[in-house]
Amino acid sequence: MSDAGETILTAADDIETRAAEWIVARRVRDDWDDARAAELDAWLAQSPAHTVAYLRLDNAWGRTARLAALRPPAHGFRFSLPRLWPVLAKAAAALSAIAVIGYFVAAPQSPRERTYATALGGHDVLKLSDGSQVELDTDTVLRISLDDKRKVWLDKGQAYFQIAHDPHHPFTVTAANRKVTVLGTKFLMRQEPQRLEVSVMEGRVRLESAEGSGQQRSALLTLGDDAVATKTAMVVTRKTPRARTEEMAWRRGLLIFDQRALGDAAAELNRYNTRKLVIADKQTAAFIIGGTFRTNDVEAFTRVVREILGVRVEARGDDIVISQSRVGG
């Protein structure tokens, strides 16, 4: 794998170790308090990868604790948890590898996978061994099969795929019970809670139900096609070259809005920033805006909408509330 891939793997190992330390601190140490809980919540909020690692190891710890409870204690054996803290911390760090191996042994029918995730505002490029490349946008979670590198799952967020041509080994991406199958092409996928969008930039892909249900449509998408699929329906439209360029601006750290509703533009900026834009009412959300903005420059966006649209911009805690100006200023 590329140097970038090796860096990601090292970061993943660091995350596993940190997650193990948090679990031991919460379950064993006697100094756990609200402040420590707040620190844990902040760490989990930094990245989906933190949450994935923490939940997996916490589950493994719980299983281990249940097994230990069934084992009778040795006669007269007593110990002090505070004294065992350094040993438990090291053991918890090692538990990350043991938990994963144990899972694969217990469930050999499940595919072995590697999870990649970006934080809010993050951006990563994965180079696969077959020459394919996957570019991850903000707050995105992607899994790649370790047994078949041309099989991936998009669990959350947005990713741009540039797939090497291989007629004998189709590349598949599964998301929201839908599957995209390609031989070699470039396409964008965006996975949201109730919606999956696929835009084809080059070549063609087939979008179909991952469960093979005859009630759900499948479609062959070619250059310029944009498909939006929900649980029960699929709609395919055509996008102009200009619209496709705007759609891909995030790869350069930009957001381009061409006659977009203010509410939609604010929602797009919120995907990249911890400080959120809140549109106070439907009338304000319907205002139309245009322009190019950095994905992390909320201040420039609010300055433009205040000056051009004449709206009121007010900071309220971690939020920035945008509303119609009051009469008379």
Give the second-level CATH assignment, the architecture of the largest domain.
Sandwich
What best-fitting shape do the alpha-carbon axes yield? flat
- Average the pLDDT over all residues and give the rounded result: 80
- Stated plainly, the CATH topology of the largest domain is called Jelly Rolls
**Percent of residues in beta strands?**
25-35%
The number of distinct helices, counting runs of at least 4 residues, comes to: 8
Please give the alpha-carbon distance between the first and last residues.
59 Å
Helix content: 25-40%
Structural class based on helices, strands and sheet pairing? alpha+beta
Specify Rg, calculated over alpha carbons: 24 Å
Largest sheet: 13 strands, mixed
> How many separate domains make up the residues?
3
